[in-house]
Amino acid sequence: MITELFLWSSISLIVLAACYNTTLFVLSRRRIRRSRIEKRERFYIFLLACLNEEKVLAESLARITSLPTANYMALVIDDGSDDRTSEIALAADPALVQLHRRNPPNARKGKGAALNDGVRHLRESGLLLGRDPADVVVCVLDADGRLDPHILQSVDPFFDDPGTGAVQVCVRMYNRGLGLLARMQDMEFVVYGDVFQSARRFIGSVGMGGNGQFMRLAALNTLDGDGPWSDSLTEDLDLGVRLIAKGWTNMHCTTAAVSQQAVLSLRRLIRQRSRWFQGHLQSAGLVPLILRDVPTRPALDLLYHLSSPVLILLTSLLPLSFLVALGATTVASVQVGHPLVSPMWLLGPYLLSFTTSYAYGFVYARRERELGLVRSVLLAHVFVFYGYIWFAAGWWGFWRMLTGQRTWLKTART
After folding, report:
1. pLDDT at position 54
2. Which of left, alpha, beta for 274 (phi over 0: left; psi -120 to 50: alpha)?
3. Residues paired with 169 in a beta bridge
4. Which of 181, 225, 240, 333 makes the best surface tag, with the fewest CB within 10 Å?
5. Of 112, 65, 113, nearest to 91 (Cα)?
6. DSSP 263
7. pLDDT over 60 at 319, yes or no
8. Average pLDDT, whole number, for the chain?
9. How many Å apart are CA 173 and CA 263, to the nearest integer?
10. pLDDT at 75 over 90
């Protein structure tokens, strides 16, 4: 009786979540037409918080310094590296790339602390002297981030609206051809950007990612605390919510992307996602802020988003319940000498689990046209099983939360 109750409760949660996600999919198909209102000259600053990034930093800086525009610079924040990170930064074009070193004991305290120190350095160094904070845009870029050449031309029109505080661009995996695991990560980010983030433009709840987030300096200046970024393991999620609570609008840009390196080791990938999961658990502290300062519609979506860790942990028990029920039915069928259920009974679990594959395959095929729709849909079926890594990562992150572990589980580059 208890098993059946849990099973049907879990199924009900999945159906409700599916209905909500279907609504987001429909919204994401709408397009926003933008026209230049009053084009202003803006200055862009790329912040790269780096800890032992000698394997990937040079290529990222080469992409930045080759951008076809003049009003920008990059600040490499070396967060106590013991490799050639600083040397690579100093070898780049000194007119466009500057280095800021953080040394122990102040270094290696998390990405948020490194970014906050980078902003403090910009203010104290005089690099922003005479510039209006409303016309300065700060972009957080991971050390392995490779920007599209037209990135600034795509992002800049969003900041014509003085109410726009931040813009998140699409994220892709530049090594997505190196195996199924890399391909699944690329599909994951495409689906998240093209469905969920695109829909949230109309809800007012667009979130910030850790890579390719553009923020107006004037918006960052309105945030309380020692700096714009918190010490959360998902400081980007925290920042996006606090900007919305301050009355700023977050937008998502679908016409440009930053490409990063997919993790090719399953264990490293689960470890990375456990950090993200733990950061989402920490973000429960944002709930009072959302209830107090965020309008109803975006507040409901943000609360749903913040509840995802609980839903993941509950959903992780559903496959186990299904296997137990299937095993019990099989044993009983053997005992009575004939099947107790029709093979059509499996249609329900299939529809429950794989209906989204057709929508996700359609979305991915529009980004990866050389794959075609059929292959993309088949990959989306695999993507359903790929999503099970969140179950392992979720319980790992939950255990880390319970045991008080808060270290920055940095993903190793290759």
Report:
1. 92
2. alpha
3. 253
4. 225
5. 65
6. P
7. yes
8. 87
9. 9
10. yes
For residues 126 and 240, is the Cβ–Cβ distance under 8 A?
no
CA-closest candidate to residue 316, choices 277, 358, 357, 361:
277
pLDDT tens, 123-169? 898 888 889 999 999 999 999 999 999 999 999 999 999 999 999 99
**What is the rounded CA–CA span in Å between residue 230 and residue 225?**
8
Count of other CB atoms within 10 angstroms of residue 414: 14
Alpha carbon separation from 116 to 49, 51, 112 (Å, rounded): 10, 15, 6
Q: Is the bond preceding residue 104 a cis peptide, omega within 30 degrees?
A: no
Q: Which residue has the tokens 């589980």?
A: 409
Structure tokens at 187: 């599909």
CA dihedral sign of residues 387, 207, 278, 106 = positive
Backbone angles phi, psi at 98, to 5 degrees: -120, 155
Q: Give me the helix-helix angle, 347-367 and 180-191, nearest 10°.
A: 80
285-312 burial, b at 16+ Cβ within 10 Å, e below that, comes to ebeebbeeebeeebbebbeebbeebebb
Alpha helices in 126-155 (DSSP H): 151-155
Taking the CA atoms of the chain, what radius of gyration do you get in angstroms? 23
| Residue 322 predicted with pLDDT over 80 | no
3-state secondary structure of 275: helix
**Selection from 146, 158, 104, 99 nearest residue 125 by Cα:** 99
Pair 280, 233: CB distance under 8 Å: no
- Amino acid in the structure at residue 179: G
Dihedral, CA of residue 139, residue 141, residue 147 and residue 150, to nearest 10:
0
Q: What is d(CA 112, CA 65) in angstroms, rounded to the nearest whole number?
A: 25
CA distances from 403 to 21, 269, 286, 336, 409 (A): 33, 21, 21, 49, 15
Identify which of 87, 66, 68, 171 has the alpha carbon closest to the alpha carbon of residue 76.
87
Under 8 Å CB-to-CB from 261, ≥6 apart: which residues? 56, 144, 173, 174, 175, 413, 414
Q: What are phi and psi of 109, to 5 degrees?
A: -115, 15
Do 304 and 13 contact (CB within 8 A), yes or no? Answer: no
- 121, two tokens: 């350095």
Give residue for tokens 């301050």.
Answer: 246
